[in-house]
Amino acid sequence: MTKAKAWFLAARPKTLTASLVPIIASAGLARGLGYSIQWWIVICALLVSFCIQIGTNFVNDAMDFKKGADDERRIGPMRVTQQGHFTFKQVMAFATFFFILATAFGFPLVMHGGLPILIIGLVSIIMGYAYTSGPVPLAYHGLGDLFVILFFGLVAVGGLFYLLTGTYILPAFIVGLQIGFLSTVLIAINNLRDVNTDGLVNKKTLAVRLGITGARIWIAILLFAPYLAGYYWLAQQRWWVYIVPLFAFPLGISIGKKIFRTEPSAEYNRFLAMSAAYSLVFSVLLAIGFQIK
Fold it and tell me: How would DSSP label each residue in the chain?
């Protein structure tokens, strides 16, 4: 494998839907509420989100190897540090580069949105490191799922909505929850896949803490929680905002069935791809629902 291909795979491009879906949903919400969309803001926000997630992926690659979570028993996608394509220091340098790049793309957003956006950006980068690094790595203490709900849901949706509208309202919070739940499905499936090897190296993910049955129930909750949160739209008589995303529901049911019927294994890599598609389809349908009056 060439160094370029190894570098590309280490960025884990298939996971980047987690950065895309909050942008789609937030822009759809803002437009549906009558705000004009400044596309330069959307593009910059997307680039910042991509860079922070890629930087976080590189940190995970390096730190999981250093802590012993990645070895020859790994059944997930290839990790370049563990495979010896790059050294620990090189991978951490890649991570730092992407965090710097995120800062560069975020500078115009800070100039536009002010102190709240600066705080969001700085905390997001710090948490990118803290996910698997630092004195209390979130992923090793069962806090990874909460991290995703907060930063790939509430913060990502709310931050862009604030940039586009200059305000933050309850509908943005609800959309943030819906997207956060779906984005967390990815990490929950990933952790259930690795539950046996993570337990051996004291990586106490939520899946390790809950056990296989508990982790499966948690994934099922995440798959369907967006529709429970979506009752808010029914209460607001925004019927289409609730109805249109229901077309993604069969895919969620399919993922849930497969998780309950399949033991943690490499087969879960396919379920990860399905869950990425699920969150993307849901976000697009949600955005469409906001445009129907």
Answer: --HHHHHHHHT-GGGTHHHHHHHHHHHHHHHHTTPPP-HHHHHHHHHHHHHHHHHHHHHHHHHHHHTT-SSTT--SS--HHHHTSS-HHHHHHHHHHHHHHHHHHHHHHHHHH-HHHHHHHHHHHHHHHHTTSSSS-GGGGT-HHHHHHIIIIIIHHHHHHHHHHS---HHHHHHHHHHHHHHHHHHHHHHHHTHHHHHHTT---HHHHHHHHHHHHHHHHHHHHHHHHTHHHHHTT-HHHHHGGGGGHHHHHHHHHHHHHS-SSTTHHHHHHHHHHHHHHHHHHHHHHHH--
